[in-house]
Amino acid sequence: MSNILELEDLPGIGPAIRRRLIEGGFRTPEAVAVATPRELAAAAEIGEATAIRIIEAAREKLNIGFQTAQEYLHKRRTISQITTGTRNLNQLLGGGIETRAITEFFGEYRTGKTQICHQLTVTVQLPPELGGLSGEAAYIDTEGTFRPERLIPIATKFGLNPKQALKNIHYARAYNSDHQLYLTQAIGDLIQEGKNIKLIVVDSLIGHFRAEYTGRDTLAERQQKLNKHLHTLLKLSELHNLAVVVTNQVMTKPDVFFGDPTEPVGGHITAHNCTTRIYLRRSKANQRIARLVDSPHLPEAETLFKIDEDGINDT
Q: b/e per residue, 20-35, with b = 16+ CB within 10 A?
């Protein structure tokens, strides 16, 4: 995308401003190019006019602007996919979980959301010829449902060394929404340190926001904060060609008398920012139904999978 390797290559950035930018989370010229003047000015402790000049210089050098559909098609070919470990889910998703995108799994409790997340943190470590990206995962746990012991039989199933597989998963428990946003930005530090992060999991996306912002008078503030969180995840996915998977809670609409009254929490903010959305619901025994309800290029469809001791599998 660019030959610029250091922030100092941009006019107006000296050692002091570079240090403040890195501390503020702007570690690459790409991050500077997609920042707002207000964000950059606050991080670097400079005026907005100076911030605008730096951002414009970064965009010019990176050639961020209009491109032909042919050029964008070439860029799309750099997108990779992570296998879910099941044939049925892979077919539903057009091959697997895409990089440069946010994939959302929503549904009631015990529908398999966390189980899918656990398995993906393992399958991302597989070599490309087996459907992985030979990468590592960052897992933000907001509900205390992450279980490392659950990963051992999953890693064994895929022929990986369980001890090494656990070392390649970077886990953090988020205790409130501010902590959740901080941890999202801290993933950039892991990447800067040389960690090959190719999957970010947030399980679940909405839990803390739903608990902390109650009542209609706080709805606007909650949605604005949630929007910022999702945009940070999108930036990371674009800048580093990685996949983002989030889980979401659901609510029941009381005014629906016919059909399924269940819908994901987060409203239009979540709907617009998530690239692909999958609705999970329980079936008989240990089987689950996955329905693709929104995708920019895939048709609505559904499939079955089951939850076993060694993760999720085809029925």
A: bbbebbbbbbbbbbbb
Tell me which DSSP letter residue 108 carries.
Answer: S
How much of the chain is helix, strand and coil, in % rounded to 5? 45, 20, 35
As a whole number of angstroms, the distance between CA 234 and CA 203 comes to 16
**For 215-271, how does the pLDDT look when each residue is reduced to its tens digit (9 = 90+)?**
889 999 999 999 999 999 998 998 899 999 999 999 877 666 666 778 899 989 999
DSSP 6-46: SGGGSTT--HHHHHHHHHTT--SHHHHHTS-HHHHHHHHT-
Q: What does residue 45 show for φ and ψ, rounded to 5 degrees?
A: 60, 50
- Strand partners of residue 170: 138
What would the two tokens of residue 314 be?
């085809």
pTM, rounded to two decimals: 0.85
Q: How far is CA 85 from CA 44, 102, 159, in A?
A: 44, 19, 12
Cα separations in angstroms, 219 against 199, 214, 224:
30, 7, 9
Domain ranges of the chain: 7-62, 76-313
The answer to whether 40 touches 33, Cβ cutoff 8 Å, is no
What distance in Å separates the CA atoms of residue 132 and residue 154, rounded to the nearest whole number? 14
What is the Cα 189 distance to its own chain's centre? 16
CATH code for residues 76-313: 3.40.50.300
Cα dist from 175 to 141, 182, 188, 200, 245, whole Å: 9, 11, 20, 18, 19
Q: What is the pLDDT of residues 66-84, one digit of tens each?
A: 889 998 888 888 899 999 9
Distances (CA, A) of 240 to 11, 30, 31, 49, 71: 24, 10, 10, 28, 19
Helix axes 15-23, 37-44, angle to 10 degrees: 110
Domain 7-62 falls in which CATH fold? DNA polymerase; domain 1 (1.10.150)
